[in-house]
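Recall the central idea of this unit: under ordinary conditions, the amino acid sequence of a chain determines the structure it adopts. In this exercise we apply that idea directly, starting from the sequence alone.
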Amino acid sequence: MRRVRGPAAALAAALLLAGCAPSVDPIERLGKKAAEGVRPHRPAPAQPYRHWGLTEPLARPPVPAAHPLGVHPGGRTLPPVVDHVPTRDRVVFLTYDDGAERDPRFVSMVRELRLPVSMFLTDSVAGPGYGHFARLHAAGAGLQNHTLDHRALAGLPYAGQRAEICGQQDRLRSRLGVRPRLFRPPYGTYDTTTLRAAADCGISSVVLWRAAMTPTDLVYRRGPHHLRPGDIVLVGPDEATGPSLRERTARVLRRVQQRGLTVGRLEDYLN
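Accordingly, the structure predicted from this sequence is:
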């Protein structure tokens, strides 16, 4: 074999040395970052409300006044049960149950619209994906209690109800660093024992809903069939098929704007 000398030999040596160093393709590097949970930065659109299906931006909610706890007729302080907040502020409140739907784009929607949503989480449903709800919390979402296992509570003994509520309080604190003050009983059913157990677990308000977003449109549990200031809205139910969580949220937001309302932060109104 003839030996290569001069500039050719120097070039060959340089290529050989370069080949010894690890070479990472830019696409491969991007894939590794995605696998490690680091997404490339995507700048928010100039008009995010259009990006999410709205024709105008959401109005900023006013600064609310505090609301006191309810008092049981027997004198024992129990959390009030609310599906509507008495307020003159032209706001409604968007709430979500369980935690089955974990769409990363919904996190972007909440962040870009600065949307003050409240997530009522069930450990047996949301538990495998608490990282998703940590990202939602960082984007501004409130994280609240919806029991450990989504059992219907009414009629259960005190110890069982307390275990469901307090157990989820402890789980959310250990996994997400939050200690909820709001609680939604599964299926919206409860009894006096539920209120006692909730109070003993540090709950200040039991939250139901007056309106719910179905796959087709808003339906109302009571009162007029249109949104009013102070209404608590359940954006659901979780559906395996049909409109996505983002689309159901956008539909609610369009109804909210049609009524001349905006979205407030429920946690600011229920202390």
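The first strand starts at residue 81 and ends at 82.
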